[in-house]
């Protein structure tokens, strides 16, 4: 972690522990070095900072590119290794930036569902995460966050102090599907991307909160 990131990590870890009684399990599954994809469910704006505070290493985040227009907030996002993404016209540029970060050995947080859930339930996965998995060759760590929907659900701005938990699952290896995708026709490649995305969401669904 950079000094600035570590300061934020310590601060958020303390705040979430004090105000939300944050519980964390499975950090041993997160590679401490080299590229890694942390694939998590998404139910609240709280998810990125909560996962970041729980993770044992520095991670990069995806952030709406318009957030970088603010001078101070944009600077903070860059210090925290945020990746600007054009949500209105998401495509090759965003994927390329993500792959560049992974190639440089960073860990990156991705939400396979694409957007926040309205009811806190898991949503179907989008194929984009499958494409990143195939192109990067990075290990995938499924992550599940509990309690963020209750604390700050989509459509509300008022925070409630609800207990939060983050669980990291065992890394997933998609070597066979990656190898098939290298020579598969485009139609089959798209199927592979979705298969990987679905397997990741299934792994997230199997994670249970700490007792």
Could you explain how this protein is built, in words?
- The chain is α/β, with parallel strands linked by helices and 211 residues long.
- It has one domain (3-206): Glycerol-3-phosphate (1)-acyltransferase (3-Layer(aba) Sandwich).
- It is built from eight helices and eight strands; from the N terminus they run H-E-E-H-E-E-H-E-H-E-H-E-H-E-H-H.
- The strands form two sheets. The chain has a six-stranded mixed sheet with strand order 1-8-7-2-6-3, sandwiched between helices. Strands 4-5 form a two-stranded parallel sheet.
- Helix 1 crosses helix 2 (47-54), helix 4 (92-103) runs parallel beside helix 5 (128-136) and helix 7 (175-183) runs antiparallel to helix 8.
- The chain is globular.
- The model has no long low-confidence stretch (mean pLDDT 90).
Topology summary:
Layout: H1 3-20, E1 23-25, E2 36-40, H2 47-54, E3 59-60, E4 62-64, H3 71-79, E5 83-85, H4 92-103, E6 107-110, H5 128-136, E7 140-146, H6 148-151, E8 165-168, H7 175-183, H8 186-206
Parallel strand pairs: 1-8, 2-6, 2-7, 3-6, 4-5
Antiparallel strand pairs: 7-8
Estimate what percentage of residues fall within beta strands. Answer: 5-15%
Quaternary structure annotation: single chain
The CATH superfamily is Glycerol-3-phosphate (1)-acyltransferase
What's the rounded overall pLDDT mean?
90
The separation of the N and C termini measures 30 Å
Q: Roughly how much helix do the residues carry, as a percent range?
A: 40-55%
What name is given to the CATH topology? Glycerol-3-phosphate (1)-acyltransferase
Listing every helix as H and every strand as E from the N terminus to the C terminus, the arrangement reads: HEEHEEHEHEHEHEHH
CATH class: Alpha Beta
Overall structural domain count = 1
Count of runs of 4 or more consecutive helical residues: 8
Tell me the structural class.
alpha/beta
Approximate shape: globular
At CATH level 2, the architecture is 3-Layer(aba) Sandwich
Alpha carbon gyration radius: 17 Å
Question: Which regions are unreliable across 5 or more consecutive residues at pLDDT < 50?
Answer: none
Largest sheet: 6 strands, mixed
